Amino acid sequence: MQLVFATNNPNKIKEIQALVPAHIKLLSLADILCIEDIPETTGTIEGNAKQKADHIKNHYGYDCFADDTGLEVEALNGEPGVNTAYYAGPQRDANDNMDKLLNNLKDNPNRNAQFKTVIALHLNGNYHEFTGICKGEITKGKQGNKGFGYDPVFRPLGYEQTFAQINLNLKTQIGHRGKAIKQLFDFLKNT
Q1: Number of domains in the chain
Q2: Treating both helix axes as pointing N-terminal to C-terminal, what angle do 10-17 and 176-189 enclose, rounded to 10 degrees?
């Protein structure tokens, strides 16, 4: 079986490549010669994942999956949410995004947050959706240099270190994307 993973993010591809069962050949957007920006304009994490998967299926004809991820901070009414990548502006700069988040939280004692990943799958003419959530808290400053995005300021529940301080294998096991991908691959084993 071959599936396109509809992302241009090399960090996401690296995380997921470690989980792909042997019977699935994972194709990237580059493999199918998709170089255009895929729209993400729905206003929800679920909607954006579906929109990206629909784009690949409708324009390229491949069975595929796409994900969208948001960081939802309780004290900020769920921000940055669907705007996670663009929180500090169109430049999509991780440090700018983290700085804005830390500034908006300031000394707020409520640091509760969660990462949420939604995966949209088009397979054999059917649509399926999988959701992974990792609860945790926002630290008061950046810690660690592994990972990407908001990893240096997100500490998963039950751990002393941020996502940027733990190894990729552990992050994949306990993280939002890993949980959603596990659901996806468990589903694919039974199809």
Answers
A1: 1
A2: 50
